[in-house]
Give the backbone structure.
Amino acid sequence: MARFLIVEARFYDHLNEMLIAGARAALEDAGHEVDVLTVPGALEIPGAISLAIESQQYAGYVAIGVVIRGETYHFEIVAGESARGIMALTMDGMAIGNGILTTENEQQAIVRADPSQLDKGGEAAKAALALLNLQAKFA
Ligand SMILES: Nc1c(NC[C@H](O)[C@H](O)[C@H](O)CO)[nH]c(=O)[nH]c1=O
Ligand SMILES: CC(=O)[C@@H](O)COP(=O)(O)O
C-alpha cells in the first residue's frame, strides 16, 4: 500500500467531482490511500506537486483539472504550461498522472470526466500507478 496525492484545480465543481471519483476508484482499487489537495487553477498544479514532493509524504500524484477554451490565448497558456510543468516533474522520475482535461467545450469535458464514459481521471491515476511500478522495476 502506498499513499497518493490528487492535486485538483477546482474550476468546474461538477467535472472535478467526476474526475476525482474516477481517480480515487482506480487508486483505492489498487489498494492505495488517497489525499486530495485543492489549488486555484491548473497553472498552480505543477508547483503544488513540486512542494508535495519535497515533503516526501507521497509515492505518486494525480493532477486533476479542466481547462475549457474561452475567447483568448489564455487557453493555450493554461493548457500548455500546466502540462509542461507536470512533464518536467515526470522527467525527474516522479510518478505523476495528468488528468487535466483541455477541451473546446463543456460537453467534451463531461464525456471525458465521467467515470462511466471515458474516465480520464481513472486513466490518469493508472498512469501514475504504472510509473510507480517502473520506479520499482528500475530501482
Ligand atoms: N481558465 C482556466 C484556468 N485559469 C486560471 C489559471 O490556471 C491560474 O489559476 C491563474 O492564471 C492564476 O495563476 N484554470 C483552470 O484550471 N481552468 C481554466 O479553464
Ligand atoms: C482556459 C481559459 O483561460 C478560459 O477559461 C479563459 O477564458 P477567456 O480566454 O475568454 O478569458
